[in-house]
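Convert to structure. Protein one:
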Amino acid sequence: MPRSARPLLQGRTRPLTMKEWGDLTVMDPDAGAQPPGHGLLTVGKDWLHIDDGSAPGNPVVTLYAGADLGAEKGWDEVEETMVLSTTGFLALCDSGYEPVRKQNLATAGPGPYLVRVHASDRSTDGKKPRFLIQIIPAARTGTEPEPAPPAIEEAAGPLLVRTCYDQPEPWARLLTALEGGSEPYESITVIDNPLYTGFAADQLQARISRDAEDWPASILLLIADEQALASAEFPLLAVNNLPDEDDDPFRITLAAAGSFIVNIELGNTSFGDWSHGADTDGVYRKQHY
């Protein structure tokens, strides 16, 4: 069915049992496959990823599109976020990014939408996960903001975050070098999300999730920015994310980053020990274990 001919959903649907177990998306299918995140919701332009949890049953989904009815009570979790639709088309899709309903959920055309997701039994054995997804048009101003970047929760180890998206070939080479590297690189979690384009170190630090005692999910941040991707050495910007530490960021080549990560994780050296060993151009290049 051509998407231009899909009727708009106005109101509430009956509960639908998904045919395929797996996470859910509300998206324009032409946006392509999107990276899952951690936590209930991960958002990007023209898509929203909903974590189905660990329960093995196929999820049961109810949709609502239209005016804001407010959040319902009696659910285990209720979260909401803004999704920017640039195409005026949003559909409920399965984990393979294929639409499972005929209706277009973007009832007001292109623009921002408040999406509120209610969930229960995402991790309850013997029960099907249940969802109520409300898609509500937000105010149109003519200059719609980008959706807020999600919190970075992916790992407790070092993070490598890409912030430059106009140099795809160097980034591909960096990933190839990383995948072919030694064991120390295996602990790195790569964050590749265009929502972080142009982010500075402090902006990324603010997105890294923290526990109840304000301890960050990751204490070491490596940033692949424009300067890092402009050189064959890949001088990544290294940032100390330990609480109450005021070490200045410095650059370290990808080749030297392996020994850096090992020694930091083992506590053999401090972040400052490495920053003081940088060359006159501010880049650390020594390799040792």
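Protein two, convert as well:
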Amino acid sequence: MELRHLRYFVTLAEELHFGRAAERLHIAQPPLSQQIRQLEGELGFELFHRTKRKVQLTEAGQVFLSEVQQIIRQLQQAIQVGRQTSRGEIGQLVVGFVSSAAYNILPIILRTFRSYVPGVNIELHELTTDQQLEWLREGRMDVGLLRPPIEENRFNCETIFQESLMVALPEAHLLASQSNVCLTSLANEPFILFPRILAPGLYDLIISLCQQAGFSPKVAQEAIQMQTIVSLVAAEMGVAIVPASLQNLQRIGVVYKTLQEPIPKVAFVADVGAAIAMIWRNNETSPTVLKLVEIVKQAAQQW
């Protein structure tokens, strides 16, 4: 039994007329009659009562029609699902992101991706850069949003967002009333930083900027999340240099100030770290993952 036999049967059952059914199927009437006979022979029961004046379904034919129509609907659904899967339009993705991405590009990425492929479920995990690399190596994650640089050639890594840096100060700080802050005025301040092992790019950038201003920062406390760093600033534990998008994190007791001296252009290239990059495996074959990568790359051109 072939699928075309079932298609011929359903068409004839709908028309109950060999001539009209043959016309719909774009075949001659005799071959249609022959195919129906072959199907009945294979099934072992008659599907139609035939007279010179009309064609009618047998009782067995009516039951068989109902079942076949269900099979055809399921087949059409299977074809549709297969096509959507091949285009990356359904499935599930596991996406990691550094905490600061939640205040700039992550909401935009999620809205944009969902508008194009609403059938894909995204499972999000807030992870540090080194945790994301570990998850990618273990196959626990599909795509990451992290702080470069990344030196492992097993991954594709593309910068998708760059931003300036600002100073986060306690609200009661003597410099809080100024419109901008000279970095040298922070030389004697306690600093709150990420541990270097978790975000070497951003850490090295901050240290480099301070050294260019003539001092090495006194690290009073380290924290692995941007929210924690800002909270510690609010608690007057120190000051912090943070990505500008952290202004979107409204925290009582903290003020954000632009840096007075121009930041060197080198601070904005991907291999220094004042950026967010998208990372995925080199050998990735999942259409859903590649769809996300494609959409984010296109969207990043507008940022």
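Confidence is low (pLDDT under 50) at residues 264-273. The chain has nine helices and 13 strands.
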